[in-house]
Design brief:
Layout (H helix, E strand, L loop, with lengths): L2 H11 L1 H14 L7 H35 L6 H20 L3 H7 L1 H15 L15 H5 L7
Helix pairs in contact: 1-2, 3-4, 3-6
């Protein structure tokens, strides 16, 4: 059995053992023994996971901003804390991967669609009264002092 086949087999059967083994190979400089294709796939997957997490957090944030604006009579400490928490988490993710900010600008339409679904699912707000396009810029969403009126 070749090294590559053994590595791929290990990748499919025991991911943790595969990851630890490949990390050791890297540290020892044994690059010819690495499972390059699966390592590349995992690195791409990690980047995509961070992007999905960022989009998810931003959609929760926008949903709460919509609730704050369109159900102002129900504004609560809980909503305010959720807004603050999501902003903090988004800022944290962006500080770890600043290039994702560009991705967020490109994904605002999709993010807003998720936010609309969340908002209408969690409230009695009629979807027809909510704006078709996101009424907040990315900068407003991330601004700790911004709360829509």
């Amino acid at each position: 059995m070749s090294i590559g086949h053994h590595q791929s087999d290990s990748y499919n059967k025991d991911f943790y053992a595969w990851a630890i083994h490949n990390a050791k190979l890297i540290r020892k400089g044994k690059f010819s023994e690495l499972d390059i294709n699966n390592i590349a796939e995992e690195l791409e997957s990690m980047g995509n996971r961070d992007k999905r997490q960022l989009i998810n957090r931003l959609s929760v944030l926008i949903s709460h901003l919509l609730k704050w604006q369109f159900q102002s009579e129900k504004q609560s400490k809980s909503w305010k804390l959720t807004i603050k928490e999501q902003r903090l988490k988004v800022h944290e993710l962006l500080s770890e991967s600043p290039s994702l900010k560009h991705e967020l600008n490109e994904k605002m339409l999709l993010t807003y669609k998720y936010a609309l679904i969340l908002t209408t699912k969690q409230t009695k707000i009629n979807e027809k009264i909510l704006p078709k396009k996101c009424p907040y810029s990315l900068e407003q969403c991330l601004n700790n002092k911004f709360f829509p009126e």
